[in-house]
Write a structure and sequence with these properties.
Elements lengths: L15 H5 L1 H5 L9 H18 L15 H11 L3 E3 L3 H7 L10 E5 L7 H13 L3 H27 L2 H13 L1 H7 L5 H36 L3 H9 L10 H14 L5 H22 L5 H8 L1 H18 L2 H4 L20 H18 L21 E8 L11 E7 L3 H21 L2 H14 L19 H16 L6 H29 L3 E3 H6 L8
Antiparallel strand pairs: 1-2, 3-4, 4-5
Helix pairs in contact: 3-7, 3-8, 4-6, 6-7, 7-8, 7-9, 7-10, 8-20, 9-21, 10-11, 10-12, 10-13, 12-13, 12-15, 13-14, 13-15, 13-19, 18-19, 18-20, 19-20, 20-21
């Protein structure tokens, strides 16, 4: 069932019956409880697990930037910081039995790396358990990808109060090629995407809990006063009631700090999500009739919210560098020793200089790359990134002909992405025309993951960076498909035809996932079959 638009109450003119229904509208019930709310998310999680774990060790090679992060993860395991890697490390690893403790891959000199440590520690966790093998450096990322599917289904269920739309969003994420490829590759971006999605879900829980407490205050006021308008006025005077402690918001800030500890692009989501949760507080105050909800929120909540959440993010990020601080030989660790004396500890000054160097690297990265893409093209998936390609002409590796190909192409499911363009436009209309906060929340996630890259059109960037906002893209599509089906109040004929249209779209998405799966997972297929999957010349 499609999510209904949010309405607000003007308590100066609203009839008593609308005021009496306010607690129910502030704290809307979930569509189901207990096990029923988990069946759909776990089912689509199982679909996602099969697509992500099957033959995870294929290809037996370093796919794209796997040539960096799994080895840096091994260095963290051995030394607590990243060391310079010997030239033939890839060959040694691929020919080894995966015993990372026995591998001698590093020089004595520290390496300059430009990403924080947490993502590499995550990859290293899989290597610690399963060894320095393709499966070992991919499994942790794959687990996060699978958990992300279940998590999204539960988040969207809470967002829309619909088991159907929540399950559909999780299924769409399970079937998307970008998410499949990034879940099966030992890169940092899926780790980043996981913590961003977790932060969004935690802020949504905070919103529900805050409004639930507010509904209790309204209900108590209505019980103690016979006149509904007077009762509501009693709690809406001045700045309105306080919202109390916000532990879910604090945990969300921890998740955002973990995201920034993987890649700095998480900072954009810190800004976007802090503003979003503050706007939600403004909306709550407006709903109960506070006359100046913006002023009330800005003066009462916004400074504390911003300071608290940003402080938690910074603290989490700082502690993610513990290995660097504890390692005297880490890159740049002793930089401050050659600088003028200062009251600031030398380790902090060295750390800051390291960050300045990394920042200069990121903003100045303009070298050409065959798969460099313009972020304006990302919604159309016109220039995906090839992570791995091998031409097989000797009939080996199960090739049924004398000319085969194996590729891992970081390409989104074209039907999902192309349909999502219309869905995003629809959600923009829902937000602007219907004041639907759900649509606005999804658009915030998309904007935070996409729009900042438009500031760096000359920088070397890739389509797979979309992984941070893929969950919001599929959520927009799932919500629009819910609108296609129609509300429960629609006629039987309207819902039947709507369900057929949404079902036909979903079937097409499933078929395209089946068709594209070989080039998302490096399967060996005849070259002519590979060519049939190259729908655009820019995919090659």
């Amino acid at each position: 069932m499609a999510a209904a638009p949010v309405t607000t109450i003007n308590t100066t003119t609203a009839p008593d019956r609308d005021i009496k229904s306010l607690p129910a509208r502030l704290a809307q019930p979930m569509p189901s409880s207990g096990l029923l709310g988990w069946i759909g998310p776990l089912a689509v999680g199982l679909v996602g697990a099969i697509l992500r774990l099957w033959d995870l060790g294929r290809p037996h090679a370093f796919a794209f930037d796997e040539t960096y992060y799994p080895k840096e993860g091994l260095s963290l395991l051995k030394y607590g910081y990243e060391r310079t890697i010997i030239d033939n490390a890839n060959e040694i690893i691929l020919k080894s039995d995966g015993n990372w403790q026995a591998l001698n891959l590093f020089k004595d000199t520290p390496a300059f790396v430009v990403h924080p440590p947490l993502g590499k520690w995550t990859i290293a966790a899989g290597e610690y358990v399963f060894g320095a093998t393709p499966f070992g450096w991919r499994i942790s990322v794959a687990v996060l990808g699978i958990l992300g599917i279940i998590m999204l289904a539960r988040i969207v269920r809470r967002l829309t109060r619909s088991d159907l739309i929540g399950t559909l969003a999780g299924l769409l994420l399970a079937l998307d090629g970008i998410h499949i490829v990034m879940s099966r590759t030992g890169l940092l971006d899926m780790v980043l995407a996981f913590w961003i999605l977790a932060a969004f879900g935690l802020l949504l829980i905070d919103r529900d809990h805050t409004r639930g407490r507010l509904a209790e205050k309204v209900r108590a006021a209505l019980t103690n006063d016979t006149e509904p308008s007077a009762a509501l006025d009693s709690i809406a005077t001045g700045f309105g009631p306080t919202f109390g402690l916000r532990p879910w918001r604090w945990v969300a800030a921890v998740a955002l700090g973990l995201a920034c500890s993987v890649k700095w692009s998480g900072i954009w989501f810190v800004v976007a999500f802090v503003l979003m949760t503050i706007v939600w507080d403004i909306s709550a105050r407006r709903a109960i009739g506070v006359k100046k909800p913006w002023t009330a929120t800005v003066l009462r909540d916004a400074p504390l919210t911003g300071i608290t959440m940003v402080a938690i993010v910074i603290a989490v990020y700082f502690f993610s560098w513990t290995g660097w601080f504890l390692s005297d030989d880490a890159y740049g660790r002793g930089w401050a020793a050659g600088q003028p004396a200062s009251m600031i500890p030398a380790s902090l000054r060295s750390w800051w200089d390291y960050h300045a160097q990394a920042w200069n690297f990121h903003v100045g990265l303009t070298s050409e790359h065959a798969y460099k893409s313009n972020p304006l093209s990302w919604p159309f998936q016109t220039r995906p990134t090839s992570f791995f390609y091998e031409s097989i002409k000797d009939g080996s590796q199960g090739c049924p002909t004398n000319n085969c190909a194996a590729e891992v192409l970081a390409l989104g499911n074209p039907i999902i992405w192309w349909a999502a363009i219309a869905a995003i436009i629809h959600q923009c209309w829902r937000w602007i025309g219907r004041r639907d906060w759900r649509a606005a929340a999804v658009l915030v996630g998309i904007a935070a993951g996409w729009l900042p890259w438009l500031l760096y059109l000359n920088r070397t960037i890739f389509t797979f960076y979309t992984i941070t906002y893929v969950p919001f893209v599929v959520t927009a599509l799932a919500m629009s498909m819910g609108t296609m089906i129609g509300p429960a109040s629609a006629s039987e004929s309207r819902r039947r035809w709507g369900a057929l249209a949404a079902g036909a779209l979903l079937l097409l998405i499933v078929l395209v996932t089946w068709w594209m799966y070989p080039i998302w997972t490096g399967q060996v297929i005849p070259y002519e079959q590979w060519k049939l999957r190259m729908w655009m010349p820019t995919w090659v």
